[in-house]
Amino acid sequence: MPSFFAAFLISFLVVIVTTPIINRYGRRIGLVDQPNHRKVHQRPMVRLGGVAMFIGVVMAMLVAWGMGGFDFLRPGKESEVLGVAIGGIAFFLIGLADDLFNLSPKTRLILQVVVSGLVWQSGVQIDFLTNPLAGLGLSALPEWASLAITVVWLVGMANAINWIDGLDGLAAGVSGIAAFVMFWTCLFMGQPHAALFAAALAGAAFGFLRYNFNPAQIFMGDGGAYFIGFTLAAVSVIGLVKSVTTVAVLLPYVILAVPILDMSAVILDRLRRGKSPFVADKRHLHHRLLKAGLSQRLAVLFIYSLTLWAGSLAMAVSGMPSGVGYAIAATVILSVTSWQVWRTAR
């Protein structure tokens, strides 16, 4: 347990310390995100906060490694952990390049697919899916299907976190809640190596909220969103899907249900209207909540409560002690925020 606490705390503190420094540097050299008709912010904002989050997670994992946090790895797990680490670095660099040089969507997608394919080769693989025709039992996937589904999952989640990064504190808070829930579920499922990554991600996300919650002082940018989204997805594979139980295989999709459903709904809506799924618009859940008359803070808090509720359901169905109690508490929180939304919405 000390290594888990250290991973969370070090990541949290490093982000707290480095974010203001990066913010000042970004303003000095003019690396800012300008307001426009599609964006909510009203003034230029530095979008390099992901650099601080990346540094925080890397420092935390190095300290955890030095404390013997990975000494318990079973044979064959080393390559999976290495795949998550290298893949996270690569996704961060892709996002950072986009923040600095404005890469085309096609270029970003190709790079993400290539990296995800290499990560799959390292052992980060979805090898089983639930089969409704077999009473929700598990069905082994052929190699080509495992590759395709794993790549879609890794690339999709990286972009899903990036797509919800539209309000102050939204992506950081959702990611932090999901990472914290994933930490406890991975630990309960006997996957401490994955729990270490999740603890560091949670620390980075919550530390960044100090500067990113409304009114935000800095944005995480594509570098932060791609890094957090990919790492959450990869950790869910090596920590939960690899457990090869029906419940464990389903848990990542429950924990990350909010960004998954938001992205899926937006893509289907764009296709239905004959638009490209890659052309940005203002039809995400958070945009709809703002259009209904909610403030940024209330919209964000409502989506937080949805994420927490989904995570609590995952904890309950996993059989975790007190999981049902967490689900009841999260349901009460969601009910309160939903009532506030109902009172406020036009």
Automatic annotation (TrEMBL):
The keyword rRNA-binding does not apply. GO terms for cellular component: plasma membrane. Its cofactor is Mg(2+). Its main location: membrane. One of its GO terms (molecular function) is metal ion binding. Keywords: Cell membrane, Magnesium, Membrane, Metal-binding, Transferase, Transmembrane, Transmembrane helix. GO terms for biological process: cell wall macromolecule biosynthetic process; cell wall organization; lipopolysaccharide biosynthetic process. The keyword Metal-binding applies. Mg(2+) binds at N162, D222. Its EC number is 2.7.8.-. The chain crosses the membrane at residues 6-25, 46-67, 79-97, 109-129, 144-163, 170-190, 196-213, 225-244, 250-268, 298-317, 323-342. InterPro entries: Glycosyl_transferase_4, PNAcMuramoyl-5peptid_Trfase_CS. It is a multi-pass membrane protein. It is found in: Cell membrane. This is MraY family glycosyltransferase. It comes from Leptolyngbya boryana CZ1.
